[in-house]
Amino acid sequence: MENTHNNKWRMVILLGLLFLLIASFGISLSQGAVHITPKEIWQIFSGGTGANSQIMLNIRLPRTILTVLVGMNLAVSGAILQAIMRNPLADPHIIGISSGAGIAGIFIIIILPQYSFLIPPAAFIGAMLAALCIYVLAWENGIKPLRVILAGVAVSSFIGAGISALLILYSDKVHGALMWMVGGFAARSWSHVELILPYTIAGLLLGLLFTRHLNVLQLGDEIAKGLGMNVEFIRILLTAIAALLAASAVSVAGLLGFVGLIIPHTVRLLIGSDYRFLLPGSILLGGSVVTLSDTFARCAFAPLELPVGIFMAVLGAPFFLFLLRREL
User: Fold this and answer.
1) Which of 203, 206, 254 is nearest to 98 (CA)?
2) What is the spatial distance between Cα 247 and Cα 323, in angstroms, rounded to a whole number?
3) How sure is the predictor about 283, in pLDDT bands with cuts at 50, 70 and 90?
4) pLDDT in the model for residue 145
5) pLDDT at residue 254 tops 80
C-alpha cells in the first residue's frame, strides 16, 4: 500500500517536471533581444509571417529544441554513470568522458573542418576510449567510487594537455575551438538539431530499457551476479549508452559541464533512487534546466551573450564541492 502511494507521488512529481519543461520551452521562445508574446507565438505557429516569424522559426525554435535535447542527454548520461560506477560524483564532464569527446571534436574542428559531419561519431569514439581508460584504471577487484574520481581526474588532465597542445600548435584557428570548449548554443540552427536528434532518441530509449539493470547495479556486483546478471557486459553496454549521449551533446554544444551531476541528484532528492522514475525525471528536469540556463545566459547581460557553459560552471562547482564534502 505504501509503495503504491509512493509511486503515485512520484508520478505527480514527474507531471510537475513535465509542466516545468513546457514552461521553460515557452519562456525560451518568448525571451530575447526581441520579446515575443505568447499570443504572437501562437500566431506564428498558426501560419503568421513577418520579422518575428523569421526570428522564431529560424533562430529561437531550433536553439530551444537543441537546449532541451542536450540537457536530456547530459542528465541521463550522468544518471547512468552514477549507477554503473556506484559513485554519486560521477558525471561525464567531471570524470573525463566529455573531455574524450571534446578532444576528438576539437581535432576535427581544427585539423579537418571540412569533415564536420564526422564530429558526433568521432566524439563517441573519444568518449568511449576515455570511459574505458577510466574503467581500467579504477578497477581493482571491483569498482570503488573514490578510484573512479581519481582515475577520471587523471584521464581528464591527460586529455586536457592534448587539447592545449592542439590549441597552441594551431593558434590561428583557436577562436572557434575556444567557444566550443566553453559550451554554448550561439548560432545553432536546424542542422544541429538534425545532427543530435537520432542519437538522443536512440540513447534515451536504450537508457529507459535498462532501468531494471541500473537498479540492480546499485546493489553491488555480488548481488547483481547472484541475480543472474552478466555484470561486466551490462556495465560496458551502459557505459556505451552514456558515452553516446554525452558525445552527441558535446558535438553540438561543446564542453557543457555539471548537468549530469546536478540533475540526477536533484531528481533523486525529489523521487528517490528507483531508476524507473529517476531516469524519466532526469530527462524532464535536464531539458528544463539547460533551457532556462541558456535563456538566462543570453538575456541577463544583453546585448552581450554569455556562453551557458560559464553559467553552468558557476552553478555546478559549489554543488560538486558540497557533494564531495558529504561523500568523503
Assistant:
1) 254
2) 25
3) very high
4) 64
5) yes
The CA distances from residue 55 to 50, 51, 65, 180, 189, in Å, are 9, 6, 14, 23, 12
Task: Look up residue 162 and give its three cell numbers.
Answer: 592534448
pLDDT at 177 > cutoff 80: no
Handedness of CA 174, 198, 68, 290 (dihedral sign): negative
Of 194, 291, 308, nearest to 254 by C-alpha is 308
| pLDDT-derived band at 327, boundaries 50, 70, 90 | low
Q: What is the pLDDT of residue 61?
A: 93
Check: CB of residue 145 under 8 Å from CB of residue 86.
yes
Q: What is the CATH number of the domain that holds 199?
A: 1.10.3470.10
Q: Are 206 and 80 in contact (CB under 8 A)?
A: no
What pLDDT was estimated at residue 278? 95
In the block, cell 541521463 appears at 76
User: How far is 84 from 226, CA to CA, in rounded Å?
Assistant: 17
- Mean pLDDT score of the chain, rounded to an integer? 85
Range of the domain at 8: 2-327
Q: Is 154 helix (H, G, I), strand (E, B) or coil?
A: helix
Across the chain, how many H-helices and E-strands are there? 15, 0
Domain tally for the chain?
1
Half-sphere exposure of 95 (CA within 13 A, CB side): 35
pTM given for the model: 0.89
Q: Is the dihedral of CA 130, 257, 194, 180 positive or negative?
A: negative
Q: What's the rounded mean pLDDT across residues 129-142?
A: 80
